[in-house]
Predict the 3D structure of the following.
Amino acid sequence: MPVIAVDAMGGDRGPDEVVAGAVAARSDTLTPVLYGSAGIDAAGLELVETVGVIEMSDKPAEAVRAKPDSSLVAAVRAVAEGRADAVVSAGNTGAVLAAGLLELRRLPGVIRPAIAIPVPSERGPSVLLDAGANADARPEHLLQFATMGSVFAEEILGIENPEVRLLSIGEEPEKGNQLTLEAHELLAASDLNFAGNTEGRDLLSGAADVVVTDGFTGNVALKLLEGAIRSLLEALRAEIESTPRGKLGGLLIRPAARRLRDRLDPDTYGGAYLLGLRGLAVIAHGNSSQKAIANAVRLAARGVEHDVVERLAARLPSPAASRAPG
Amino acid sequence: MPVIAVDAMGGDRGPDEVVAGAVAARSDTLTPVLYGSAGIDAAGLELVETVGVIEMSDKPAEAVRAKPDSSLVAAVRAVAEGRADAVVSAGNTGAVLAAGLLELRRLPGVIRPAIAIPVPSERGPSVLLDAGANADARPEHLLQFATMGSVFAEEILGIENPEVRLLSIGEEPEKGNQLTLEAHELLAASDLNFAGNTEGRDLLSGAADVVVTDGFTGNVALKLLEGAIRSLLEALRAEIESTPRGKLGGLLIRPAARRLRDRLDPDTYGGAYLLGLRGLAVIAHGNSSQKAIANAVRLAARGVEHDVVERLAARLPSPAASRAPG
């Protein structure tokens, strides 16, 4: 039964919200263990007491070094030392990455870990990566992201022979920036199921099973999507409520609107995998609700059950064949 | 009265759609002149006959050189030679840029022209640039885009002392990729009304009056927004129509949904300015309807009336003070 280390101090809403999420996720098939400061209410879960908290505003690498016994670093270390099978944190994303690199280390052959996030498209879920682990990327990084995304799509989304596309500014291979032009060539020459470029407009309609991009573009795109969904639903509500006829209609479509919101709700997945490390880490949104935390813990357990880390290791190039770490 | 050269052969929907748009835009305050092949129906407008058509799939620079008498190049040249005050094309964007660089040339001091596109935010229109003129950019380009965007916001959107923000992956100055980190410093040291970084999530809610980014990120973001708006409205309709109650509600909210769609419709502006040349060019969406073309022609005329090109020239650094063209 997977043991999931949960960083109880991570997230904007405070430990009670995280603990409630962990409690909700506890089941016959997974055991959450909390890592947090003495005195927090563990609500019946096991609490490993930690010292210090990494703040959202802390500089990641510095904070991880300065606070080795903080909830975040201790939870990551628990995976490295075999006391947990995966870690979940809604804390400082950069610090989770830094702690992962320090405590878990990279899988052999991995140049850069990437954040893989499920996107709720019309055709069903797809995965976008990198969603922000690396602000700058090189073409060979994008090729690895594609490999890691394919393993994720197969193991977690259950898609056989997943189709990979490269996010760019035109479908033609010769459209893009320097990075995507070179990455396109690498992807086309790889043994992945690469189907070419995709444009931003197809992301929600289901561009591909795996959408590959650099962490800057991926992060901008995800936040844009998040903001667009919220803005559009709010704008529609304002328009509806501006007339009596609209108000009545609004009452009638409320269940439909709620179904749509739930389907698109980032809390439905709750988290993103940090892929490429010798252990599984799930990063939850800083503003995670308990529902989001619970789903992030379940996502972590699913990754453990499907041996995501081992399967990644098997699919990535052997260290001898790969380039030096960048 | 501004004379607007219209590339009648540009756009996916064929000359009849473009001509209908130009006819709709004709008024007491502007005169559209068509540039197109002999034999098209000019519907009473002046037609300057041109030879050859640049296709969407043509390589921009090659096509502009190989087809100097095509409708697109001839329409741009009309501005360079003073026979028109601005040009509108829904054709190959790269070719409009290439023709602009060749025929109109850059304003003194401009390193790279940029595509400035109005974004319909909750707070009112804002402008995003570069929306795709340059796939790769350097920090000093982004500084110029900010200056050009500010002139656009003042002159065309009527915003006094417009607020400029840099699109990045965190609001803190130290969050971003190499390009945005360096651009942030240049912007902070400039005399623009720079308010720091903005994240994708605030683009539709009204992040700033001017949102600056490189052409790759800007193009991905715009297409993503376009796709998200379409996908969301479609998904909501599907949810609504899945139950009788929803269907009735859907009928009642139809006017509200239509108002929202119209407000967000890219056709409302119809086009984007290509800024930084010694003449005004408006790029319309390849799939422009006649409504979009008409609005693009009006947008061009508005730019002429507001002396956008002259005002840009006055605000940009003098050639002696600026770096060599990149």
